[in-house]
Amino acid sequence: MDYEEEELIKLAKEGDKVAFSKLIRKYQSLVFNLLYRLIPDEFDINDIAQDIWIKVYQSIANFKINSSFKTWLNKIAINTYYDKLRKKRYKEEVSIDEEDEEGNKIFDIPDSRLIPEDIILDNEWQNFLEDKIKSLPEIYKVIIIMREFQNLSYEEISNVMNISIGTVKSRLARAREMLIKELSEYFKELKK
Fold first, then answer.
1. What is the count of structural domains for the chain?
2. Is the pLDDT of residue 61 over 70?
């Protein structure tokens, strides 16, 4: 934790709303990236993100300054996500081909450095990968997202999930095995 972040946290703990809003700005993309990979519905992402920041605001006074704010925030985010799952029994699947109101694919991630043929293959690959990650069982999906997309360490994941580092490693290995098996199908299709 850098000095500026530590000062913002101290001020936020004392009730400084400006400092808290700076923390939100600093970490909002981390929260949205995590939720985006877990939840396909944009409305629910905003709803859960708001719940997360309310919980952070309500409990920041209890945050231990010598702890990792990022890990603490991820723990609140994951727990809030699980609370929402339990309440709503969120089982709905969303097609990777889903489009927004203007007819644009929601998961379209263009790369201007590529030629058009490569862009098509890159988008197809991205869509396929996102689909396979979202189809993983919950315990594996959360671990792979925290490790590969949030760049959390094994120890941080262990703290967020309240599981041992060995369990983190074994679940991550299992998630990777499942993805490799699923992703190998993609390459078999390309060879045809």
1. 1
2. yes
